[in-house]
Amino acid sequence: MPDHTARLFSQEKAQALAWINRYARSGFVCPVCGSKNWLISDHVTQAPRFAKDFLEGGTATYPLILFISNPCGFVMPFSSHLMGIPAPPPPPPISPPLAPNPLQKDY
Ligand SMILES: [Zn+2]
Fold first, then answer.
1. Which 3 state secondary structure label does DSSP give 33?
2. pTM for the complete prediction?
């Protein structure tokens, strides 16, 4: 499972590579440059919904693992759920900044 920073470890990368090789009929070929050399993103990324609240925490997103063509850089996103790689746990809550104390004097 990815950690709370959504980092993928070698086990998840190997799982993603095995998944893509299972479904790619004649090799996983980049549609731009024809390369079969792919890099796998170091993190699970996400695609937000197209809605006003897309940046609010706890709203629905779609976790993705990116395959990046080497050398051209073309990026193909795949669902981490379908690859069997669970979404990372939610990050720890961010503490709100302390409000300035109006009674405190800076001398
Ligand atoms: Zn390419």
1. coil
2. 0.76
Q: Is 38 in contact with 67 (CB distance < 8 Å)?
A: yes
- Rounded to the nearest whole angstrom, what is the distance from the C-alpha of residue 88 to the centroid of ligand 1? 28
> Could you tell me the distance, in angstroms and rounded to a whole number, from the CA of residue 2 to the centre of ligand 1?
26
Q: What distance in angstroms lies between residue 43's CA and the mean position of ligand 1's atoms?
A: 20
Under a CB-based contact definition with an 8 Å cutoff, are residues 82 and 16 in contact? no
pLDDT in tens, 13-60: 999 999 999 998 788 999 999 999 999 999 999 888 888 887 777 778
DSSP state of 76: E
Distance from C-alpha of 18 to C-alpha of 64, rounded to nearest angstrom: 16
Ligand 1 centre to CA of 7 (Å) is 24
Q: Tell me how far apart the alpha carbons of residues 11 and 72 are, in angstroms, rounded to a whole number.
A: 26
**Per-residue pLDDT at 106 exceeds 70:** no
CB count within 10 Å of CB 92 equals 7
